[in-house]
Write a structure and sequence with these properties.
Elements (H helix, E strand, L loop, with lengths): L5 E8 L3 E2 L9 H16 L8 E5 L11 H8 L7 E5 L5 H15 L4 E9 L14 H4 L7 H11 L4 H20 L10 E5 L2 E5 L11 H5 L20 E11 H6 L6 E10 L9 H12 L8 E4 L4 H11 L12 H4 L3 H19 L3 E8 L3 E9 L1
Parallel strand pairs: 3-4, 3-5, 10-11
Antiparallel strand pairs: 1-8, 1-9, 2-8, 5-8, 6-7, 9-12, 11-12
Helix pairs in contact: 1-2, 3-12, 5-10, 9-10
Family: Belongs to the thiolase-like superfamily. Thiolase family.
Keywords: Acyltransferase, Transferase
InterPro entries: Thiolase (IPR002155), Thiolase-like (IPR016039), Thiolase_C (IPR020617), Thiolase_CS (IPR020613), Thiolase_N (IPR020616)
Amino acid sequence: MNDRQPVIVDAVRLPIGRRRGVYADTRAEYLLTAVLKGIVDRTGIDPSQVEDVVVGCVTQNQEQGNNIARIATLMAGFPVEVSAVTLNRKCGSSQQAVNQAAQAIIAGDADVVLAAGIEHMTRHPLGTDRVPEPPELTEEYEIIPQGVSAERIADKWNLSRSDLDEFSYRSHQLAARARSNGEFSREILPIQVEKDGASILVNEDEGIRPNTTVERLGELKPAFIDNGKITAGNSSQISDGASAVLVMSRKKASDLGLKPRARILARGVIGADPTLMLTGPIPLTKLILEKAGLSVRDIHVFECNEAFAAVTLAWMKELQPDIQKVNPRGGAIALGHPTGASGARIMTTLLHELEDMDKELGLQVMCCGGGMATATIIQRV
């Protein structure tokens, strides 16, 4: 038995809020603080045992600037000795936080790391931290919006508008069924917030549309280019949310009397063509499976982030997984995509899916802005 094996002890997330929705009046720091406190309360761990808090966040300005990880760690009542860092690997930021926590444990630098993610896209719209790219970059690479990249992917993999809309409908239906059946209840941390002067309890994801249809989705206009296929309906939702995953060495979990729920089996990152930008999950899935000595057939549940329906469908065309194993509770098209929080949110959902289905191996993969991808394989223990 490897004492330094990184294991997941718990994983939680807030309900995902729609843009200008339930969290519109709540600062980002409070959302992140809630999940940090929540995971401590759920596990009963003494916060002084946590050696580092690693938080993914994409738009690091204003309330999300100033190393929001450190601010929220102090607000959550952790001892001042518990350090914290905020990182940005675009959409894969909090998945990177989980992977970085595992790396610290394997290296012997820490035994307990709390990985988390935050993104309040209502109060800090995506892109508000950007400045014009230097000419040395733009002369070499065509810098385009992600939606245009998704259009190119749809064309390259011969995906029709109906393909995209049907997949998006599937996402909403699966998420609605999971919500109705209470399948998100164990992973969601309810939160009390103020909205329009009233106190409200948020305990469900806000973006799921159970009554949408393929026909309604088909009526939406292209969002990025004239006569295009990519619409608001077959793209991920702009959202607000926070998530957290508690990672430990196997020995430390045993010493603290905590039962590991999964081990982190493999991790990986890759760069991809920045003019297609969102294709990284394809080569990275092949790479991480090879690293782990596994095949597509060995994986019981896949979570491929639905940044756009085109991204997941192209990935499926190349990898040929059983579609029943892919995003079985819907994805970002229905649930939302609070970018910095999505990596740990998806890991949280994947862990609970494996447990509820009594399955063993799960693979999570995400495309990232700028032409990158992150991936993780976990195994229930």
